[in-house]
UniProtKB/TrEMBL annotation:
SUPFAM superfamilies: SRF-like (SSF55455). Residues 84-170 form the K-box domain. Residues 77-111 form a coiled coil. This is MADS-box domain-containing protein. The lineage of its organism: Eukaryota, Viridiplantae, Streptophyta, Embryophyta, Tracheophyta. GO terms for molecular function: DNA-binding transcription factor activity; protein dimerization activity; RNA polymerase II transcription regulatory region sequence-specific DNA binding. Keywords: Coiled coil, DNA-binding, Nucleus, Transcription, Transcription regulation. It comes from the Eukaryota. Its main location: nucleus.
Amino acid sequence: MGRGKIEIKRIENSNNRQVTFSKRRNGIIKKAREISILCDAHVSVVIFSSSGKMSNYCTPTTALPKILESYQQNSGRKLWDAEHESLSAEIDRVKKENDNMQIELRHLKGEDLNSLYPKELIPIEEALQIGLASVRDKQMEIWKMHKKNEKLLEEENKQLTCMLHHQQLAMEGNVRELELGYQQRDSEFAPQMTMAFRVQPIQPNLQENK
């Protein structure tokens, strides 16, 4: 017996609905892969679950944006609104501007100049001269700053040397004063020591008087 026909309607049981979604999703992606390989077709499938989880498949030999672009051209339907078209145009403009800047940078480095005409070389030469002048001005500014710092260091060194010299003189003066003080004290103390060590008079022998 074959399976009974399933009524196509929303499955109320959440568990059964999730199981059915997983099986059918896998079946659809499998069929898309098979038709892509068997028939050399460009296929893209994008599936979003009720929870917002995305599953997708795209033919390995192409890309989803390419398929969407082909769909838009063949169906006549616009997939992007005016805002997205404006954003895409801005991206293209920035990309083109970046490419031009890369070319100009190579020219300033002296690369890829053979394809340029003499008139096209003049702006490059002027830009290089302006850049060279800016570099020299910056070098001069740095050199002046270094000279200024060097002068400040020399003045600071002179001040420190002078302070050290004064401190040495002060220390030498203190030592001299101490030496003079010791000499003066010794000169005052010498007579006292002489008197103290004088020989005392001989006391009479008391036994002789007896």
